[in-house]
Amino acid sequence: PCRSFHGYNRLLTSQIISHYDSINQYKTELPEYFNFASDVLDEWSQLEKDGRKPANPAFWWVNEEGEEVKWSFEELGFLSRKAANVLSEACGLQRGDRVMAVLPRVPEWWLLNVACMRAGVVLIPGTSQLTAKDILYRLQASKAKCIITSDTLAPAVESVVPDCQFLKSKLIVGKGSRDGWLNLQELL
């Protein structure tokens, strides 16, 4: 059994090496700057518009109650451009700035991921299980200029804001409003 296993392993290695060599022989021009949102998602959107690619959802979310959110590539591109404008204009973020997102699994989570890519903003993901102490540590260590969270988690953030010297804006995802917070839904 050992010999056949080792022999098989060598066969895999040679196959992998030949595949690697074939990839290396393919010469492609790499862009100087690559942005997934504009170079991939927008391109797929254009291919669908031109009829060169069948229309498929770019994003499809379903919650426990069966509510659905479905975005085409065109819709995701449009919404992510609007969200990127919110980040750069309303939140005052610039390319290279850091934003921390502490959200449950809601559609805005993915929308903000694409918006950050589009705007050149560094996204620091955080689970909704973080405590105020965890949030404080991450905000201080990352020097994040913005935090995005839900109305449920906003009180934990508010309790640590005085100790976060770099934090300039707070963005809330939800239907409610809070003093000192920008509301993503309203800004979109």
Automatic annotation (TrEMBL):
- One short Pfam family name for this protein? AMP-binding
Q: Which reaction does it catalyse?
A: a medium-chain fatty acid + ATP + CoA = a medium-chain fatty acyl-CoA + AMP + diphosphate
| InterPro entries in the record | AMP-dep_synth/lig_dom, ANL_N_sf, Mitochondrial_ACSM
E.C. designation(s) = 6.2.1.2
Q: Which BP terms in the Gene Ontology apply to this protein? A: acyl-CoA metabolic process; fatty acid biosynthetic process
- A GO molecular function for this record? medium-chain fatty acid-CoA ligase activity
EC class of the enzyme, as a word = ligase
Q: Which GO terms describe its cellular component?
A: mitochondrial matrix
Q: Which family does it belong to?
A: Belongs to the ATP-dependent AMP-binding enzyme family.
Tell me the protein's name: medium-chain acyl-CoA ligase
